[in-house]
Known about the structure:
- Chain A is mostly beta strands.
- Helix content of chain A is 0%, strand content 56%.
- Chain A has no helices and eleven strands.
- Chain A has strands at residues 3-7, 10-12, 18-25, 34-39, 45-51, 60-62, 70-75, 80-85, 94-104, 107-116, 120-124.
- Chain A is globular.
- Chain B has strands spanning 9-12, 18-23, 34-39, 46-49, 63-68, 71-76, 85-93, 98-101, 105-109.
- In chain B, strands 1, 3, 4, 7, 8 and 9 form a six-stranded mixed sheet that branches. Chain B has a three-stranded antiparallel sheet with strand order 2-6-5, with no helix packed on it.
- Chain B is globular, with a radius of gyration of 13 Å.
- The N and C termini of chain B lie far apart (28 Å).
- Classes of the chains: A mainly beta (126), B mainly beta (110).
- At the A-B interface, strand 5 and strand 10 of A face strand 3, strand 7 and strand 8 of B.
Amino acid sequence: EVHLVESGGGLVQPGRSLRLSCTxxxxxxxxxVVTWVRQAPERGLEWVGFIRIKAYGGTTEYAASVKGRFTIxxxxxxxxxxxxxxxxxxxxxxxxxxxxxxxxxxGCYIPHFDYWGQGTLVTVSS
Amino acid sequence: xxVLTQPPSASGTPGQRVTISCSGSSSNIGRNYVYWYQxxxxxxxxxxxxxxxxxxxxVPDRFSGSRSGTSASLAISGLRSEDEAxxxxxxxxxxxxxxxxxxxxxxxxx
Lengths: 126, 110
């Protein structure tokens, strides 16, 4: 069974950094694109970024709101994707979800996010 | 303000049919597949519909999706109390080079 578990959330001051982890099980992690999506309190879903599989360079794409401050990486041997968040702002306060992007022999399809983690709360406040 | 426009709320009584709309543009819905997510209270989003009108395994056929031009819609027939949730549409936006979500529609079963 596919499982994704986020961890690393918590309370952090503005301007500081935090790293989230997304630990996967139940599938061949290295064969899938992983994305991060966040949800501010009482707000809608906002795409944060994604990381491609190693076969496509493991490259990343980000939303404009986080580009230059957030970095996604992956360690396929540990089955973990990371979201490094620097220069945090109060508006980054949200529940952060990682999700698996559906991939088939013909490619990976965004935003076809077929499995999601339970989310981890990040609160940016002084 | 979301790139995709959804009504903030919708409601219906048990057994009724309700429709949730999602309006976009030629750079997103007009040329890319639409996906729908259901988020039950206090839980993570769940994929409800993919490629405009395909249901993942386990999603009841009471749920159906469609796309026409730059708009899409999700229909729920035989409304049940457990359908009370937030619903989000999503698609790829060619201009933004990334996925976009609608603002979400809160469905209330009266």
